[in-house]
Design goal:
By secondary structure, chain A is mainly alpha-helical. Chain A has 19 helices and six strands. Helices cover about 40% and strands about 5% of the residues of chain A. In chain B, strands 1, 2, 3, 4, 9, 10 and 11 form a seven-stranded antiparallel beta sheet that branches. In chain B, strand 5 (about 120-125) and strand 6 form a beta hairpin. The longest helix of chain B has 26 residues, at about 35-60. Chain C has helices at about 5-15, 15-25, 30-40, 60, 65-85, 95-105, 110-135, 145-165, 170-185, 210-215, 220-250, 270-295, 315-325, 330-350, 365-390, 425-445, 455-475, 480-505, 510-535; strands at about 50, 265, 415-420, 425, 540-545, 550. Chain C is mainly α. Classes of the chains: A mainly alpha, B alpha+beta, C mainly alpha. The interface of A and C includes residues 21, 22, 75 and 224 of A.
């Protein structure tokens, strides 16, 4: 090609590339949504104008329709300086923009055109958009203006939009009184379930609870880098693997928390019980399998509650709602003992109402086969999974009340557990020392209750 | 040029208007030793060079900030005598360090697993730290026994103040065996 | 409608006082005088000569990489200035501003992409330019100084890339810069972690790393300093050096092609200028299309409490990071790069071969070409390993292995010579032994006066090595893979480090010979250490912990 020709061709191509770049930037994904909204809203106004009998009102509506049809295309923002929110959601969700849709209500039924639900309720009225932004409650990537990026289910954005009832986790962030708050019922239920199933026995929240596993008081801040990818690959939500493509990433914190409840944690975090990669065996996650005990909706409630436990988000003083002090019910004796059992999360290891001890990997338990070195690994794994915590009713018969109190105060080290496979790993959980954490009176009542539910031995011991 | 006539009297007589010069003390005939052109230029350039050198040095000094806005990572861990032998989790929640007392003194370890950053738990009965996230195990010294952690736990700077308090500085860290057992990562404190 | 005489109007405009005051020249005719006038009368073009040697025009000779590098530099300056209107260098706002550029600024994403891709392309172009100049011997007398300026420009290009990398303030930025500046902290004497540094009183708050970061860790001050260096200080220095570089090219007759009697020079206007134009247009087009099709990456916001795993430097530095596996930071991060830069600058002064100037001479410059290209290949091989073959915890992952696969802990390493408890053998043997081996290696090629037969020498050496490997395998000390590593790496080191110098540079005078051998031996030490570490798990050949010097 001659240089003369190359001159024309290269100049033409550069110009074409510029047009292409500009077009790509100009025809941003949000424009069609905004344009369509203006058309739809203008059509509505025209329809109202036609149906309106009063001449003047009809003319006014026609003018409003014309103005709506000609509205400028722009990136719209809701800014909350106090909370540091600069949310561009209303660029597409124009129905939620108070300057375009002054009543904040419309008849449209589909996203992104439909208006925000429940704008007449006390809940929404207490949280005006121009004060709170959108992402304070809904989470997501407010700065973005494309669909997937804005909703935040993309790689490298760690606070995606909260789906369904998990949004109530956002209430927990500011409202210390969420347990009695109207509108935060699911989060309140989540906290109740957290206590009912004994999670706080191993997972302390702000120092209250057991120290066997991870402190959850700031779990909503957990950086994604702390979760190993090879564990995420094992998560199954609704039976399906989670995608992790750049524009469709579901490897996020909510799903990780969810996985602990709707999957067996020992399957998600199997570690290395046969020492294939390490100098000694490492047991899988010590967390019991709650999949049969906690249903799907209950799991969502717990996820909602935990999603609100953050320490990184700075809530300004005026936005923080304190709670009245919690009142402990006045019980005594065995009834109080049962309450103490549930208060400190003993059912996390020893089962609901102490009926049966939960899984304790590689502990000697009932119903296990005899340990045989030559057993294939898969079978060994199965047997190790049958190891369990002590079932208290069977145990308490052999203790006096004082011995029981002493045992609870001192705790039981992991090394004291009898292992099923001597070569296998040390169990991951142990009984913490509760001395100083449970008051004397509570211990008395707890021991009373435990003895009362003990199985009476035939021997009359 | 001929010298002007030295005239002792300051006011000259009007008889000789050709010499209106006021009286002045005798000037020397010539300067004692004129500075050579080479020396003069050398002096001038070297002063400029000195200016450049001084500016460069000042510029280098300029680049070292005198104040920085990194919040101090020091904290007072209380009286050394108040600690029992072994691992103390007193400051674990607030400062994320364990205080370890041995018969010969104290060291403090940053409670951050070197794998992905979770907080390990101290299992006193097994004499090791175990991380609940992926099962890394560390000895009392911080060395990795098992698990995916790639390196030992970090020890912080710890020193004994004259008042008997332990001052821990988390900004200064060390985890190499051979270095971490000595000052400033270890504070001598003999047990009675 | 009266017909418009375009030509007449054009002539009137161009001959008017207004036009002539700005452009001078008037209407150009295609005469030699006016072709010269285009060049002489234009400030941007008058750096060119009026006529140029025809060799300077050949694409296959010049590759055009110098001009393309400059075109990329201009693209970077323009896009960079544009980006500066929407970017604030504070940790509270930097990431948010990048997000704004991506989503809310007209052409913001495109400009950001163009800036990043042009930066990557410029690093490649500058290295390609250096390789071309080397292979055509265009650094030899009298062009040594210009080559040195070019090496400085290469270093500054990499530094510009490094400082720019921090500005988005995402996880990649903060940790790549942490790795890079920790290497600075390992500088001998000037760094707090380098050998002898603590003896001179260097601590984390007064060493060279402190002044680079403006603090003890990568934070607010670092962002501001890197911003100023990236946008103002270094571009100014690069500009000054570029002026010098271009002026020297002009003064050295624009092309190093060998002298041809009665050579017919060619008019720069249009012949050179049109080629430069096409190259620039092609570069702009390439960057534009790339920027439309691919977005520059942006990870999560920088979090000093969370380290990414693995944490890697940008690709052009990841070769040095890979070197960190084999050498301590002060060697891998300071001494080696320093030797590379100083070594490159020294090349024109140690190369006394008059052949190969201005043309590709493969047979006439065996030593120069072989060793230089070996260095280039090793540099890119290390980059490839560091980039693609190192996964979480910096463990070795083959390309087909997913980074989610769990890998066993690496086997324990050992040191050969060191104090008791640290090395397998005493350092009292090690230090003199290493010294003797190094001295022998450095001096023998020149002392052996007769030219060795390459094939025979290599054959003998490999044979001896095979025997050693065989004995080792028989004793159970190593397997066949280790034996293969031993043969390959040590054989290569012997060939490039002993046989080639012996055959080709033993006739150099002692100063030049020694400088060359220092560079050659250092390069071979990388190969040998890689073999030692990868095959035999040797951490240090010699370790002297008391002064923090480990080899």
């Amino acid at each position: 090609m001659s240089y003369r020709k190359a001159f024309i061709v290269s100049n033409a191509l550069v110009l074409a590339a510029f047009v292409w770049a500009f077009a790509k930037d100009f025809y941003a994904p949000w424009r069609p949504y905004q344009a369509k909204y203006y058309q739809m809203a203008a059509d509505e106004l025209d329809k109202q104008a036609a149906a309106e009998k009063d001449e003047k009102k009809s003319a006014d509506l026609k003018v409003a329709a014309k103005k709506m049809r000609r509205s400028p295309m722009e990136i719209k923002q809701i800014i909350s300086v106090d909370l540091g929110r600069f949310d561009r959601c209303v660029t597409c969700h124009v129905g939620m923009d108070e300057y375009t849709n002054t009543t904040l209500k419309n008849n449209f039924t589909e996203h992104p055109y439909k208006a925000h639900p429940k704008v007449d309720t006390a809940l929404i009225k207490a949280h005006p958009f121009n004060k709170f932004g959108c992402t304070s409650c809904h989470s997501g990537q407010g700065l973005a203006t494309t669909v997937e990026a804005a909703h935040g289910w993309v790689k490298h954005w760690e606070k995606p939009m909260l789906k369904g009832v998990t949004i109530q986790g956002s209430c927990v962030k500011c409202h210390d009184n969420f347990e009695t708050l109207k509108g935060a019922e699911v989060a309140a239920q989540g906290k109740k379930l957290f206590n009912k199933h004994g999670c706080q026995g191993c997972h302390a929240i702000n120092g209250k609870g057991g120290v066997v596993s991870v402190e959850l008081g700031d779990i909503a801040d957990k950086p994604f880098e702390r979760i190993a990818g090879y564990n995420f690959k094992k998560v199954r939500i609704d039976g399906k693997e989670l995608p992790n493509e750049h524009h469709d990433s579901h490897w996020n914190l909510q799903n990780w928390i969810r996985a602990h409840i709707v999957n067996d944690p020992a399957v998600v975090t199997p570690n290395d019980p046969f020492a294939h990669y390490n100098s000694e065996p490492i047991p899988p996650s010590g967390m019991p399998d709650f999949t049969k005990e906690i249903g799907k909706d209950e799991a969502e409630a717990i996820v909602a509650y935990l999603s609100g436990l953050t320490k990184e988000e700075i809530i300004p003083y005026r936005y923080h709602v304190t709670a009245p002090p919690a009142k402990e019910p006045q019980l005594s004796g065995a009834a109080n003992g049962k309450r103490v059992y549930e208060k400190y999360g003993c059912q996390g290891c020893h089962g609901l109402e102490a009926k049966q001890g939960r899984r304790r990997f590689n502990a000697a338990g009932d119903g296990q086969k005899e340990y045989d070195e030559k057993m294939p690994e898969a079978e060994q794994l199965e047997q190790m999974n049958l190891g369990a915590e002590p079932t208290l009713p069977k145990l308490v018969g052999t203790y006096t009340k004082d011995e029981l109190i002493h045992k609870i105060e001192a705790g039981v080290p992991a090394a004291d557990a009898k292992k099923w496979s001597p070569k296998g790993p040390m169990p991951m959980v142990y009984m913490p020392a509760w001395k100083g954490k449970i008051s004397k009176q509570e211990l008395e009542d707890l021991a009373t209750w435990l003895i009362s539910i003990g199985v009476k031995d035939d021997s009359g011991f | 040029m001929s010298d002007t006539n030295p005239n002792p009297a300051p006011d000259s007589t009007p008889q000789s208007p050709a010499a209106p010069v006021a009286a002045a003390p005798a000037k020397p005939a010539a300067p004692a030793k004129p500075i050579s052109r080479g020396d003069f230029l050398w002096a001038g350039w070297s002063m400029l060079a000195a200016f450049f050198a001084a500016s460069a040095a000042a510029g280098a000094r300029f680049m070292f900030p005198n104040v920085i806005y990194e919040p101090s990572q020091k904290f007072n861990a209380g009286q050394a005598s108040g600690y029992d032998l072994g691992v103390s989790t007193k400051w674990l929640n607030e400062q994320r360090v364990w205080i370890v007392r041995t018969p010969s003194g104290f060291y403090a370890m940053w409670a951050r697993c070197t794998h992905l950053g979770c907080t390990p738990n101290w299992w006193g009965d097994q004499n090791r730290f175990k991380c609940p996230c992926h099962g890394s195990n560390y000895t009392l010294d911080g060395d990795v026994i098992a698990g995916p952690a790639p390196m030992p736990l970090w020890r912080t700077k710890v020193e004994l103040a004259p008042t008997g308090d332990l001052i821990v500085d988390k900004a200064v860290l060390e985890n190499k065996p051979g270095k971490r057992e000595h000052a400033p990562y270890f504070a001598n404190y003999a047990s009675a | 409608m009266p017909t418009l005489d375009i030509e007449k109007i054009k002539k009137e405009v161009i001959d008017s006082q207004l036009w002539r005051s700005v452009f001078r020249g008037g209407v150009w005719k295609d005469t030699p005088r006016d072709r010269a006038g285009h060049i002489i009368g234009n400030v941007w073009l008058h750096l060119h000569p009026v006529k140029v040697r025809p060799r300077a025009l050949e694409w296959l000779y010049t590759w055009g990489m110098g001009g393309i590098s400059f075109a990329l530099y201009l693209i970077l300056t323009l896009t960079g200035v544009a980006l500066m209107f929407y970017y604030r260098p504070t940790i509270g706002l930097a990431y948010r501003d990048i997000k704004d550029l991506e989503f809310a600024v007209t052409l913001g994403m495109f400009l950001r992409n163009a800036h990043r891709w042009a930066a990557q392309a410029m690093v490649v172009a500058v290295i390609a330019h250096m390789v071309r100049v080397f292979l055509t011997g265009a650094y030899k007398k009298p062009r040594e100084f210009n080559w040195g300026i070019g090496v400085l420009l290469l270093t500054l290009t990499l530094f510009l890339s490094f400082t720019g990398y921090l500005l988005p303030w995402d996880q990649l930025a903060i940790w790549a810069v942490t790795v890079g500046t920790n290497m600075a902290g390992a500088t001998p004497v000037l760094g707090n972690e380098g050998p002898l540094g603590s003896l001179v009183g260097m601590r984390i708050n007064n060493d060279v790393r402190f002044t680079l970061l403006g603090g003890t860790m990568v934070g607010e001050n670092t962002l501001l300093r890197f911003y100023v260096m990236h946008c103002v200080a270094v571009p100014l220095v690069v500009g000054i050096l570029l002026i010098l570089h271009f002026w020297r090219i002009r003064k050295d007759s624009f092309s190093a092609a060998p002298y041809v009697a009665n050579e017919e020079k060619v008019d720069v206007w249009p012949h050179l200028v049109k080629r430069e134009y096409i190259a620039a247009a092609a570069t702009v087009l390439f960057i534009m299309v790339w920027s439309i099709l691919q977005n520059a990456p942006l990870e999560a916001i920088a979090n000093p409490n969370v380290t990414t795993n693995p944490s890697k430097a940008p690709w052009y530095f990841v070769g040095l990071q890979e070197l960190l596996v084999y050498f301590d930071p002060w060697i891998a991060g300071v001494v080696m790069p320093g030797l590379i830069i100083v070594g490159l600058i020294a090349i024109p002064y140690i190369d006394t071969n008059p052949k190969g100037v201005g043309y590709y001479a493969w047979k006439e410059r065996p030593f120069a070409n072989t060793l230089f290209m070996l260095g280039v290949v090793m540099w890119f091989a290390l980059i490839y390993i560091g980039y693609a073959l190192r996964g979480p915890n910096y463990a070795w992952y083959w390309p087909w292995e997913s980074w989610f696969m769990v890998k066993p802990a690496p086997p324990p390493t050992w040191s050969v010579f060191g104090p008791k408890g640290e090395g397998a053998y005493s350092m009292l043997i090690g230090i003199p032994l290493m010294g003797a081996v190094t001295a022998a290696w450095m001096l023998l090629p020149k002392l052996i006066q007769k030219e060795l037969d390459g094939k025979k020498t290599m054959g003998a050496f490999l044979g001896a090595l095979a025997v050693v490997a065989g004995i080792g395998m028989a004793m159970g000390k190593m397997g066949p893979i280790e034996g293969a590593f031993l043969l390959f790496f040590t054989g290569a080191s012997f060939y490039y480090g002993f046989v080639l110098p012996q055959r080709h540079i033993r006739t150099l005078d002692w100063p030049r010979y020694l400088v060359t051998m220092v560079l050659v031996v250092s390069t071979m030490s990388v190969l040998l250490k890689m073999c030692a570490r990868l095959a035999f798990n040797i951490k240090y050949v010699l370790t002297i912990p008391s002064i923090s010097m480990n080899f």
